[in-house]
Amino acid sequence: MWVAKFKIKHDDWILDKTVEHKVIARGIPLNSYRENGKSFHTGMVFLYGPDINKKNFIASVKKDRRVKNCTVKNDQLFVLIEGEDSIAEVFDKSLFFTRPVLMKEGFEYWELGSWDKKKLIDFYQKVQKIATVKVLKLKPEFPAVFIQQAVPKLTGKQRTALELALELGYYQYPRKISVEELAKRISIPRTTFQEHLRKAEEKVMNLVVEPLK
């Protein structure tokens, strides 16, 4: 099994919005099809960032004329987009996503798996013609495939606390930041932040430990 990771910058319906509203998104393309002479594609998106930024992002998505349908639950969106998707047009259906597409700071990060190394190289060469793309990884490995149902159901505040702690090095050794400093970053009491973080950690750990029981 071969796995490749690509860093891609191209024009689409979502990337500019993540930059404008300062959110990070992870997306999973679900399908691409034609109906009545028009092109459509469906995607699932997970949002990460301050609540106000996520709300503004969602509002901008709903105003986009290309978005024909949008269902939102907490930080997760399902969207139906009308229009050509240039990368979908060159995507080989024998490839598969090993994890959601990461959209961060104006770039998309695609991690794809294939039985055939040449298929991944062909995809790269086709994308080169329509977008800016860089190969970050191309090697044989056993992929750790993302499974949506394995994600614990965190509240918005719990997710924010956990994301901030990860981003700022709370879980690194030695720790780069304290709980008190993290709480100050989002202007809430230390005890409140610690409660959100501990509950998030408990849900994640229960998910990890449950199969071992």
Element layout with pairings:
Layout: E1 2-9, H1 15-20, E2 24-35, E3 38-48, H2 51-63, E4 67-73, E5 76-82, H3 86-90, E6 96-97, E7 101-104, E8 107-114, H4 117-128, E9 132-140, H5 156-167, H6 179-185, H7 190-209
Helix pairs in contact: 5-7, 6-7
Description:
The chain folds into 2 domains: 2-140, no CATH class; 152-212, Arc Repressor Mutant, subunit A (Orthogonal Bundle), CATH 1.10.10. The model has no long low-confidence stretch (mean pLDDT 88). The longest helix is centred in the last third of the chain and has 20 residues, at 190-209. Strands 1, 2, 3, 4, 5, 6, 7, 8 and 9 form a 9-stranded antiparallel sheet that branches. It has helices at 15-20, 51-63, 86-90, 117-128, 156-167, 179-185, 190-209, and strands at residues 2-9, 24-35, 38-48, 67-73, 76-82, 96-97, 101-104, 107-114, 132-140. β4 (67-73) and β5 form a beta hairpin. It is an alpha+beta fold. The two termini are 31 Å apart.
Question: What's this, in brief?
Answer:
The protein has 213 residues and is of the alpha+beta class.
Order of helices and strands: EHEEHEEHEEEHEHHH
Distance between the ends? 31 Å
Tell me the β content.
Answer: 25-35%
Helix content: 25-40%
Which radius of gyration do the C-alpha atoms yield? 19 Å
Number of strands: 9
Give the structural class: alpha+beta
Number of helices: 7
Name the shape in a single word. globular
Mean pLDDT: 88
Uncertain stretches: none
* Largest beta-sheet characterization: 9 strands, antiparallel
Query: Number of domains in the coordinates?
Result: 2
